Amino acid sequence: MMMRFLKLFPSIMFLLLVYFSFALANSSSSLRQLCLSDENRALLQFRQLFLFDLNASRWCYRKYAKMVSWKEGTDCCRWDGIACDAITGHVIGLDLSCSLLHGTIYSHNCSLCHLSHLQSLNLAFNDFNNSRIPPCFGSFTSLIHLNLSYSNFSGEIPPQLSHLSKLVSLDISSFFLTPRCGRFFHNFSNDYNLHSASSLERLIHNFTQLRHLNLDEVSVNSIIPKSLMNLSALNYLSLWDCGLQNKIPADIFHLPNLQHLDLTFNPKLIGKLPEFFNDSSPLRLVSLAATNFYGEIPNAIAQLKSLEYLDLGSANFSGCIPESLGNNSKLSVLFLDNNHFGGEPPSSLWRIETLTGISLSLNTFEGQIPNNFSTHGVLSYLELFDNSFTGQFPHSIDNLAQLQYLDLSHNKLSGPLPSQVFGLSNLTHLDIGNNFLNGTIPSWPLTLPSLKELWLDGNQLTGSINQLHTSSKLQSISSSNNNLRGPIPTSIFNLRDLIALDLSSNNLSGIIKLDSFSKLRHLQYIFLSNNNLCGPIPTSIFNLRDLIELDLSSNNLSGIIKLDSYSKHRQLRYISLSNNNLCGPIPTSIFSLRELVQLDLSSNNLSGTMKLDSFSKLRSLNYLNLSHNSLTGFQLIPTSNMWPSLVFLDLNSNKLQGSLGSLPIPSETIMYYSVANNQLTGEISPCFCNKSNLEFLDLSNNNLKGAIPSCLSNSSILSVLNLQHNALDGAIPRMCSQANGISLETLDLSYNQLQGQLPRSLAHCKFLQLLNLGNNMLVDTFPTWLATLPKLQVLVLRHNRLHGSIGKPRSEVAFAKLNIIDISDNNFTGTLPSDYFKSWHSMTANDRNRSNWKFLTMSSRRFYSYTVTLIDKGLEMELVKILNTFKVVDLSNNNFQGEIPKSIGQLKALCALNFSNNHLTGSIPTELAKLKNLESLDLARNNLSGIIPPELASLTFLEVLDLSHNHLEGSIPRSRQFDTFPNTSYLGNPGLCGFPLSKPCGETEVTPQPSPKLDQTQNLESIIYDFDWKVVSIGYGCGMAVGVIMGNYIYNWKQEAIARFFRVRLGRHSKRLSTRRRGRK
């Protein structure tokens, strides 16, 4: 045996030697670094450019600093994000996506340029600080995949990238479509541009193998190049927000391998869906949202058998949804919102069992919402708001077990809500607001286990609010603008997750317990305005540290405002406690709210003085309304930069005393400044002239004196100047001189002591709508030169020293838009201006359709309420709100003579006509019977003769008639309307007889005496009626919204409108809760 072993020993030793030789070789090979040294150095050099920043990759679900493993002396092929060729050792793959990189890549000295064998490069989701794409990337001729998306690159895409002929995937996008139905999210943006279609064409013309192309938000700003149709291998194409224009090539829908087509947010891109699709088309996603695509959805849409996602929202599509769309059996998401679709959605649509999300909102769909949702087990998102759907709330929605989002708001749904719903256990958002739902609120909306947002606002719901389940997850509740009554349920104050509570504009009543809000630690928005809540403001509100907005206005809250805990509120920005019965001084603790933006304490009983040094701490304040209180003044002398952000300041209707200069000096940002209806004295400071943003200046109803600063005429933005009811004297400044004053829309200088002539520069006020210079001492002739103002609607020159004849108009459209003209109480002579009657075209339109009525408002500032004082029937009327249908002509108390022209009958829309106290002769023209809207007719104290035309009995809206002190004769016409006039309407006409006079017709006539001319110094009210009313109404026929003013009704309306306007202007929420989504166009 031994001998046999010895013979074999050499052979065994040889085999062992060979074995160990191979083992040693393999061992040395494994110890050798695979990474090439120059590429290793290049990568380490690249690493030195960056810091690690979590925000740089904030959109990544999984992110980490891959470069942490990049250490000198180690094999780069073993580093995170690096892939090497196993044979050559070259780096062929670099994936640094979501690597927290923040820094700058220098495009002409980039160390990555040494990685010439790269096949895949992914730098997505980092922050390269507006770096340019290195042109050397175009030298990576082996590159197959290139992804530079969401990395904050900028500048032009280097044309060298077109050399990458092997590219299969190119992504340099910076937007993405989220998988949920909430639509679009803007994220980290690149700022690429290609400038033109030719640039895009040069970039892609070599990409014959390209399958994936994503250029979202690359600025192409041109048409889609036809060469794109040559990319036959393309299966993914996304050109989101590229500025694409003009018509899209129809062949783009027929690319043989295209599965994903997204052209969203290219509003200048025009096209139609093709009438034909290949049955074999692989299209799975089509998004044309926010483009200018138009036309109808073709029946051929059913040929897209693979279609899963169709978004045509916010485009210009129209017509009906084709029945064939229901044949797309794989359809999962359908967005047709914000178009011009109409009719009833086809029943086949609701039979697509794969639908998970559908939006038909912002169209004109009608009919009932189908009640056959039983088969839609996967539907999670249903949005149908802003249509004309009718009927009741569909009961079958109860079957949608997976439903999470339901919005049926702004439709015409009616009837009560179902009493019970059991199947909506996953519902998080329910919006059925702004319909016509009635009845009480059932318990189920308040007890859904997953519900976070509940909107029931703008319906006709009644009854009380049910108690809520204490385990509710509700974060937002809105049931505003209903008819709910009773107290606020105590269970609401146990909703620990509640963020927003809106119960405004109901009939809720009762006292809110002082500790009610103590548990609502996350509450940010409280809206309880326009109810009947009473008692003091709950002190627990002031312990809510997250509170942002508080609106308790228009209730019956009383007591002192106790804000002892307000120093804790670092976020509180909006406070409205207006229209209550709060009293006492303004609490000093409110001035610790350094973030306060808007404060409205108007229409209360607040008193005392305001400490300016405290107000000066509110550096962010831009809206302050303290009007309609009993504040008496300010402490300390105001400085010029006290409120650097203030835009709106309203102190009107207080008891402010002292000089105007003692009030806060408006900042440069001021737009609206009102201290009207106080007891201020002194002169108007020229400081108002330097406010470049000042649009509204109201100093009316004070005791100001001196001249109007001439510099006010230099403002090019001033829109409203109201200085009425003061003691101002001197001449009127040259308003609208040359290019200045181009914005002036209303000028009211009435009830002052102004002298001189009307400034001819007023003829340049092209936007002037209201001019009131009444009750001054102006000496001039009739301003025919104002006749060309294209927007002038109200002209009041009453009670001045104007003289001469009116003359004839220079054109057929003189004062064409005029609705009210009052030149009474002057010394005009000659005949009545019959030719002007023919040119007042606005008074000839007879429109009694109330749907066309609107208040006289400034074109761009629709909140401002005009106040115009007129005399009618001897009574002073203050028209606080004027409808466009209210037409008045008052030429009374002058020296006009001659006959009443027949052309007066052309003013068919006239509501009030006053020719009294002149020297008119002749008969009353029968043409007055054509003024079918006439409510007041005053021809008293003239020398009119003849009979009262019986045709006047047809004026069925006539409420006030005065024909007294003329030379009329004959019988008084009888009609239902005429029989209501008292005998004072006919006094001083001895020749008249019949009802209501005691003189029957047929008796001997008494020789008529000349009618007395009324002395203009006499008191009109004492001669006609002994009324002490300031304001009277002359009916609804012309829609004049005036009446006997009681309390603060008129000003309350005015202030609410002003506040509402400026809150919008200052960026306040339209719905006030950011969670609510409305149209996207």
Automatic annotation (TrEMBL):
Record's signal peptide: 1-25
Enumerate the PROSITE patterns for this protein.
LRR
Please provide the record's keywords in A-Z order. Answer: Cell membrane, Glycoprotein, Leucine-rich repeat, Membrane, Repeat, Signal, Transmembrane, Transmembrane helix
For this protein, the record's SMART domains field holds: LRR_SD22 (SM00365), LRR_TYP (SM00369)
GO CC annotation, single: plasma membrane
**Where does this protein chiefly localize?**
membrane
Q: Where in the cell is it found?
A: Cell membrane
Superkingdom classification of source:
Eukaryota
Pfam families recorded for this chain?
A: LRR_1, LRR_8, LRRNT_2
Q: Which residues form the Leucine-rich repeat-containing N-terminal plant-type domain?
A: 37-85
Topology term for the membrane: Single-pass membrane protein
Q: Which PANTHER family match?
A: DNA DAMAGE-REPAIR/TOLERATION PROTEIN DRT100 (PTHR48060), L DOMAIN-LIKE PROTEIN (PTHR48060:SF21)
Q: Which family does it belong to?
A: Belongs to the RLP family.
Q: What is this protein called?
A: Leucine-rich repeat
Which species?
A: Dillenia turbinata
